[in-house]
Amino acid sequence: MEQQTPSIEDCLKLLKGERDEQRLAGLLLSTKFCKNDDFDAISRVYNAVGNTFLDRLLRTGMGRGSSSKARQDNQDAYLQLSVTILAAFCRVPDIASSDDMVNKIPLILEILSNESGPLLVEECLEFLYLVSTALTNGVHVFYKSGGMTVLASHMSNFPDGSHTIELSIKLLQLTLSQLSLDVIIKEHCSELSSVVTVLAKQFALSHSALKFEALHLLSMILHSVYAAPVHETLRTMSNKSWTAYVHLGIVAVLQNRVAPNQKLEALILAESLTCIAGERWLIEQTSLPGVQDSIPADRCTLLVLETSRVEIAVLLNDLAYVKYEKSKEALIDETVIVKQRNLGIAFSLVEKIIKLISSVAEDEANIISEQMLTKIINGINETINVILEYLRDAKDHGQHIGNDLLASVRIVGSYLAETPAACNDKVVELLGFMVSVQGEDEQSPFSSVCFLLPMLCQITMEVDGCQLIVSSGTYKAVVECLIKLLLEDTGTLEDNGPIFLACDTILNLLLKTKQIRGHLDDAYFIRLMGVMSSWAENAFDWSCTMMASSICALILDSTSEIMLRRNPHFNHDNLISLCQLMRRSLATDGKFADSEADLHQIVVSDVSLKNVCETSSWRRHGPSSSKIFKPLLGFLHNLPFSHPIFKPSPSTADAPQATAVIAATHRREGSSTTAALSPRSPLVRSPLVRSRSPPPRSISTVAVSSSTALGRSISTALLHRRR
C-alpha cells in the first residue's frame, strides 16, 4: 500500500497543536509548501504557527531562554529552521512589513555577525533584504542596528558572483538610496571603503546584471560630494588591486554595446578614480588573480576619451537647442541640470587626459604607442573645436553667464596651457568673450580669467600675444583678476600660483608697451599699483617684493603724475606704500638671488622714479608729503655712483623681457600653482593652473598636427625615444 503524502491541512493541524514537538514537526513539513510564489500557502502557515512560537524558536536557536539539555543539543538545527522559515514567510510583503518581522532585524544581524554556515548566512541576508524592501522603516532599523558594519565585515568573504554577494549588494543599494549618504560616510567611512574594494572586484569579474549593480553603487559612493573621506581612506590602503579591477570593468563596459546610462556611469566612475589615484590610473597595468588576458595600457585612455567626446558633442548640442530654440522656462528643467552635470564629467575627463598626454610625452618609456598618441591628440583637437563653436554660439546670442560656459572656458584654458601655439583664429576671435564669461553664482568674470592665465602668461612672451590681449581688451580682465587675487591673498605660497601667473602676464605686457599698437587704459594699472604696493608690505617671499616693485616701476614709467593725481584709486596712503616698496627693493642691491636679478634691473633702470620724487608737486602739499619723500630722496642721494640706478640703462622697451618671466617661473618652481577657487556647482571645479616654459619647436615624423605645440612637444619626446 502506497504511503500517502501529507497535505497542507495535515501541516496546519500540527502547527496548531498544543505541544512544541507538534509545532516543530509542522514547521519542518511546512518547508514543502512555502514555495516562492505561493503567497496563499505561506500566509496560511504563518497564521497557523503564530509569531510567539517563531520568536521563541529563534531565541532558543541563539542559545537564549532555554536550559534544557535536549534543546541545547539541537540549538543549531533550531536556528537554521527558524531563519529558513522566517525568510520564507517574508516573501509575502504583508508579513515582511509587519512589526513582528521588523523587530527581528537586530536578532538576525546578531546571528549574521557570528561565524555561520553559508546557507544560514544566505537566508539571513534574504530576510534582511525582504524586510527592508517591504517597509522603509526596515532600512532605518537595519542601519541603526549596525547593519553597515556587519555587512561590510562579511562581504569580502562571500564567493564572487554568488547569491550571497548579490543579496548583500542589493541590501547595500537599498540602504544608500533611502538614507543620507552624507550621514553614512560620516559614521561608516571605513566600512564603505572596504565595501568599495569588494564592489570593484565584482564589477570587473561579473558577467551578469551584478556587474551593473556594482557599477551603479561605485559611481554613487565615489562621485558623491561627500566622498572626500572615502577617497582619502582608499588612498591610504596598501592593497591597490581594487583600482585595477575598476580599470578592467570600465574597459569592459565602454568597449561593448550597453545602455547609454551605463556608459555614463562608467565615465562618472572613471572621473572619480582619476581624482583618487591620479590621471595615470588611465594607463595603469596590474596583474590580477583570475584575469589571464592583460589590457593594453592605452586602451582605457582612448575608450574614455572617445566616449567623453561623444557625450560632449551630444550634450552641447542639446544645451544649445534648449537655450536658443526653446522657451526660457525650459532652462530650469531638471533634465537641463542633469545634462550640465554630465557635461562637467566629460569635460573633467578630457582635461585630465590632456594633462596625462602632456606628462607621458615627456617620459622616455613607451607607455603609449605613437599611433595611439596621434589618435588621442587628434580627438582632443576636434573636441576643443566643438567647444569653441559652442562658445561662439553663446557669443552670437549675447549669453555670457552660465556654468556650462564657464566649464567650456576652463577646458579650453587647460588645452591652451599645454598648447599656447594652438591659438587659432577661433581663439583669437573668442578671447575677449571668454574672459567675460561668468558662472551662475559669480558677480564678475573672475574664474574664467584664472582658467586662462597659464595660456595668457605664455603667449605674452611674444609681442603678438601682447598685441592680442590689448586689442581684445583681455588685459583689463587680467588686471581686475590680479587685483581681486591680491586683495584676497591669504599669504601662503601654496595659494599664490594664480597671482604669479597674473603678475608674469602683466610684466610681459608692460615690458612691450612700446612695441605694440593700441592704448592701455592707465586707470586699471594705477589702481593695480596702489593695491600691489600695499600687498607687498606683507609679502611672505622676497621675490614677491621684487615682482611688485618691478610692475609698479613699469607702471610709473608709462603714466604721469597728472594721471596719478586724477585717479580716485591712488591716494596718499598708496603713495606712502609705493615709496616704501621702492626703497626696500633698491636697498637689496647685491643681496638678491640671481633669479631676481632681472626684476631688480627693471626697477633700477626706471629713472623716472627719481624724477617723480624730485619734481613731484606732492612734495609741496604739506608736511606729511615731505615726510614721505625725504627718506626716499635721502636714500637715493646717498647711493654710491656705482649703483645701477646712476648707470646708463636701456629704455623700458629694451629691458629684459622673457628672461624676467622665466626667472620668475624658475624662482617658484616646486610651489603649488593650483588656483584657489571653491567649486559652486558639479559643473565647475578648481582649475589646474600652472606656468610652463615654451614648448619645443621640433618637427615630428609622426602624423600630428604641426599647428599645435602639444603635438610638437609629444613629437619631440617620440624622436628622443628613437635616439
Automatic annotation (TrEMBL):
Record field: transmembrane: none
Biased composition regions of type Low complexity, renumbered to the chain: 677-700
Disordered: annotated segments: 668-700
Pfam families membership: Neurochondrin
Superkingdom: Eukaryota
Annotated protein name in UniProt: Neurochondrin
Originating species: Mikania micrantha
